Each structure stands twice: as structure tokens, then as C-alpha cells.
């Protein structure tokens, strides 16, 4: 079978972008300094090859929407246009549709959060909330503490505001509090301004681990003592495979935590509806910043999410998502046991979309990727999830999108690629 052709960023070829580098772009000298941090994400580059039918993609984090009740949603869309078209198709406030903000408060109550709807700011996906938070807090050179590894989209936003990311380690119980303490002390000694801890406590992307409940108070206490905000990014929190829901950090420290949520993984990612729950004063700044970026989040999509929450069994829908993803997680873990060469290690997520695999010494997952794609399997190299080039022995494997059979086939191919690599 013909091998898929790789985009330049994966071939390590044509440099693209930052000022001073060789490039064919005639506008290179015009860009603002901050664009130097904007480099093509490995994931986006992978997308074109990984989405070919012959390639099993364990790369993308696309939710599986096959279980959505599309017909009744279509009826809801038609009703919305017919009965409220003039509002739904009009501009709205940057703060978000009031009835949706009330419903978001109810969604967050499942995680023990008690909040006022006025403190919720609706955003264009939680990605925009992340970007806005970085925009309102970070000057160039400010430090953000983030887990190693961390969400690639967050690292992209932080780089765009020229923040310096300092990574702290994780183990099977999530972020290691002692490491956090040491990182904060080191930054203070170096005279740096640490703005916030960015953390994904539940079913981590990409690490697949969850912050142990007994560590949560300690993490909050360390951040509060050092005067550092906590950004709690929680798009997967309701996707625990045993129906378990962990208590939000925000529930324990409303004044020092900004909580980010999303309908992307529990309803529909294409609607781009997420939110931030922020302490009162911060909320004002968030609204102003998002107003200048987008004027308002899409009214139609917000109203559709709101109708969905009030007329559909959304909790039942989440249960069916959990079942779909649990079956896929099981397929992946079973296949890893069967096909991975000795010396590989991986996490065993109890929710979410991702497994984090560490290959034996000597393997470079980024260098190996073109060979994996030639063998028709794709993953994301661990380096994409680090701001410091680390992660070259790691990879993220997503089990959310391919069917269980495709997952097994993909892992089988990957096992062969790794085996070849070790024999090189
Ligand atoms: N945070 C994390 C940890 C994610 O995994 C994602 C999506 N992959 C996002 C934020 C952004 O989600 P969205 O913008 O679709 O709400």
C-alpha cells in the first residue's frame, strides 16, 4: 500500500514562521514579536495524513458524536429558528445568554461547585477561555506553572502571550505537590512573577491520570500560600468510566480558582460553547477581553445548548458517552498488553480520552512518527505536550474516535513499529 506523504513539520523540513528564520513568507518582517511563539502544532500537521482511511489515527482528540440524537436535535434547531429566530440569530452579550449561564451552574453543581450565574462567562469553547485568561494575566516573561505533560492547546496560547511555562511532574496520582512547591520557590528565588498554575485535574489530556482527591487541598494550599491563582481546566470531568465524579478544586477555593468547562466532550464540540467561572473581579476583565475578541459568543449555539439541556436527557447522553469511551479504553489497554514490546509503560485512565505511553530508552517518538505513518498508524509525540522539548520517549494515544477494532489494529501496528525501532 502507498505510504501517506508527510507534511513538512513532520518531516522536520521547511522552517515556517518566527522572525529571523528562513522562510518563503514575504511578510516575515511585519509580524509582531509575539508571533514567534506561534508555531504549527504537530497535531494540526498530523491531521491531514492521519485522517486518511488507510491510517489508524490514535492521534486526534475528536469526540465521538455517533451516539448523539441527531434527529431530535434537528427538530430542536428548526424550532429554535421558527420560534426565537430573531433572538437566536442576533448579537448577544459578551457575558453569555443568561438562561445558559444558569444551567451551567447546575452542571457544575454535579462537581460540588456552588456559584452565581453572574460569575459564569460563556466562551467560544474552553480554548477561548484559556486564551483569554492568558491574555488578561500574562505579560511577556511571566511564569505559568503547568503539569508535564500538558494540554497542547493551552501551551499554544501561553506561548502566544510570551509566557514562560515551568513544568512540574506528575505520577499516577496526578500533579506532585512537592514538585509544585519547589517550582514556586525556585521561581521566587529567581525573581520571576508566577501568574498561575494551569492544571487538568481529571482524566488528564494527555497523561490520562487524575489528581488524587487527597492531594487537592494541598495543591490549593500551596498556590494560595504563594499568591498564585489556579486555572482548573476540566472538560472531561463528567466522563469517568465508573460514573465517578471528582470534587472540583473550585468547590474548595472559590476566590483563588478559575474553573474552565466545556460542552465539547459532553455534547458537541462543533458548537464551540465553553465557559469560565471566575472570582467576581476577574469575571469583569474576562467579559471585557472576550468582547474585544469576538463581541459575543454565538447566540444561536448557546441557545441550542440551552434547549438541549432543558429538553433532552443530557445526563443519559453522558452515560452513553461514558460507555462508548470505556469500551474503547478497554480495547486499547488490552491491545497494549498484547502488542507492546517489553519495557513500554503506559497509564490506565479511568475516564477521558487518552493513554500516555513511555517507550524504552533510546526510542525517539518524534523521529519515529514518519515510520509509524508509513505503517499506517498515527499518534502524537510527547514533545508536543511540553514547552521545553521534553517528552521524546513518550506519545499520546487517543482512544476516543476509532472503533474498538480499529484501535486494536492500530495498536498492533504500533507495536510492530516500536519493535522495529528497538531492533534498529
Ligand atoms: N482543555 C483541554 C484539556 C482539552 O483537552 C481541550 C480540547 N481538546 C480543550 C481545553 C478545549 O476544548 P474546547 O475549546 O473544545 O472546549
UniProtKB/TrEMBL annotation:
<protein>
    <submittedName>
        <fullName>DNA-binding transcriptional regulator, MocR family, contains an aminotransferase domain</fullName>
    </submittedName>
</protein>
<dbReference type="GO" id="GO:0003677">
    <property type="term" value="F:DNA binding"/>
</dbReference>
<keyword id="KW-0663">Pyridoxal phosphate</keyword>
<dbReference type="InterPro" id="IPR004839">
    <property type="entry name" value="Aminotransferase_I/II_large"/>
</dbReference>
<dbReference type="InterPro" id="IPR015424">
    <property type="entry name" value="PyrdxlP-dep_Trfase"/>
</dbReference>
<keyword id="KW-0238">DNA-binding</keyword>
<feature type="region of interest" description="Disordered">
    <location>
        <begin position="1"/>
        <end position="25"/>
    </location>
</feature>
<dbReference type="Pfam" id="PF00155">
    <property type="entry name" value="Aminotran_1_2"/>
</dbReference>
<keyword id="KW-0032">Aminotransferase</keyword>
<dbReference type="InterPro" id="IPR015422">
    <property type="entry name" value="PyrdxlP-dep_Trfase_small"/>
</dbReference>
<dbReference type="GO" id="GO:0008483">
    <property type="term" value="F:transaminase activity"/>
</dbReference>
<feature type="compositionally biased region" description="Low complexity">
    <location>
        <begin position="8"/>
        <end position="21"/>
    </location>
</feature>
<feature type="domain" description="Aminotransferase class I/classII large">
    <location>
        <begin position="58"/>
        <end position="414"/>
    </location>
</feature>
<dbReference type="InterPro" id="IPR015421">
    <property type="entry name" value="PyrdxlP-dep_Trfase_major"/>
</dbReference>
<dbReference type="InterPro" id="IPR050859">
    <property type="entry name" value="Class-I_PLP-dep_aminotransf"/>
</dbReference>
<keyword id="KW-0808">Transferase</keyword>
Amino acid at each position: 500500500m502507498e505510504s501517506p506523504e508527510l507534511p513538512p513539520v513532520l518531516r522536520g523540513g521547511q522552517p515556517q514562521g518566527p522572525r529571523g528564520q528562513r522562510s518563503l513568507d514575504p511578510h516575515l518582517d511585519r509580524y509582531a514579536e509575539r508571533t514567534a511563539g506561534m508555531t504549527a502544532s504537530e497535531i494540526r500537521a498530523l491531521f491531514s495524513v492521519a485522517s486518511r482511511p488507510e491510517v489508524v489515527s490514535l492521534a486526534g482528540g475528536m469526540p465521538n458524536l455517533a451516539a448523539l440524537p441527531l434527529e431530535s436535535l434537528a427538530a430542536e434547531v428548526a424550532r429554535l429558528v421558527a420560534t426565537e429566530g430573531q433572538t437566536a440569530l442576533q448579537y448577544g452579550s459578551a457575558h453569555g445568554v443568561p438562561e445558559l449561564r444558569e444551567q451551567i451552574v447546575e452542571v457544575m453543581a454535579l462537581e460540588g461547585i456552588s456559584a452565581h450565574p453572574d460569575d459564569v462567562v460563556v466562551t467560544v469553547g474552553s480554548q477561548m477561555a484559556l486564551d483569554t485568561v492568558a491574555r488578561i494575566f500574562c505579560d511577556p516573561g511571566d511564569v505559568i506553572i503547568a503539569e508535564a505533560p500538558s494540554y497542547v492547546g493551552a501551551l499554544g496560547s501561553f506561548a502566544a502571550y510570551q509566557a514562560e511555562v515551568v513544568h512540574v511532574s506528575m505520577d499516577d496520582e496526578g500533579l506532585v505537590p512537592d514538585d509544585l512547591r519547589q517550582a514556586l520557590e525556585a521561581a521566587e528565588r529567581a525573581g520571576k512573577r508566577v501568574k498561575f498554575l494551569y492544571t487538568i485535574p481529571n482524566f488528564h489530556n494527555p497523561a490520562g491520570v487524575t489528581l488524587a482527591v487527597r492531594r487537592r487541598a494541598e495543591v490549593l494550599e500551596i498556590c494560595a500560600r504563594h499568591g498564585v491563582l489556579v486555572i482548573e481546566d476540566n472538560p472531561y470531568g463528567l466522563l469517568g468510566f465508573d460514573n465517578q465524579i471528582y470534587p472540583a478544586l473550585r468547590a474548595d477555593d472559590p476566590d483563588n480558582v478559575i474553573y474552565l468547562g466545556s460542552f465539547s466532550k459532553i455534547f458537541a464540540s462543533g458548537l464551540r460553547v465553553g465557559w469560565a467561572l471566575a472570582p467576581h473581579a476577574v469575571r469583569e476583565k474576562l467579559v471585557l477581553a472576550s468582547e474585544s475578541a469576538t463581541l459575543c459568543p454565538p447566540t444561536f449555539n448557546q441557545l441550542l445548548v440551552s434547549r438541549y439541556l432543558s429538553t433532552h436527557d443530557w445526563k443519559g447522553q453522558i452515560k452513553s458517552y461514558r460507555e462508548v469511551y470505556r469500551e474503547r479504553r478497554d480495547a486499547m489497554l488490552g491491545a497494549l498488553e498484547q502488542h507492546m514490546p517489553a519495557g513500554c509503560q503506559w497509564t490506565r485512565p479511568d475516564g477521558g480520552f487518552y493513554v500516555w505511553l513511555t517507550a524504552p530508552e533510546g526510542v525517539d517518538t518524534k523521529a519515529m512518527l514518519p515510520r509509524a505513518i508509513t505503517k499506517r498508524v498515527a499518534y502524537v509525540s510527547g514533545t508536543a505536550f511540553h514547552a521545553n522539548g521534553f517528552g521524546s520517549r513518550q506519545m499520546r494515544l487517543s482512544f476516543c474516535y476509532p472503533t474498538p477494532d480499529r484501535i486494536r489494529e492500530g495498536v498492533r501496528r504500533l507495536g510492530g513499529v516500536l519493535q522495529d525501532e528497538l531492533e534498529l
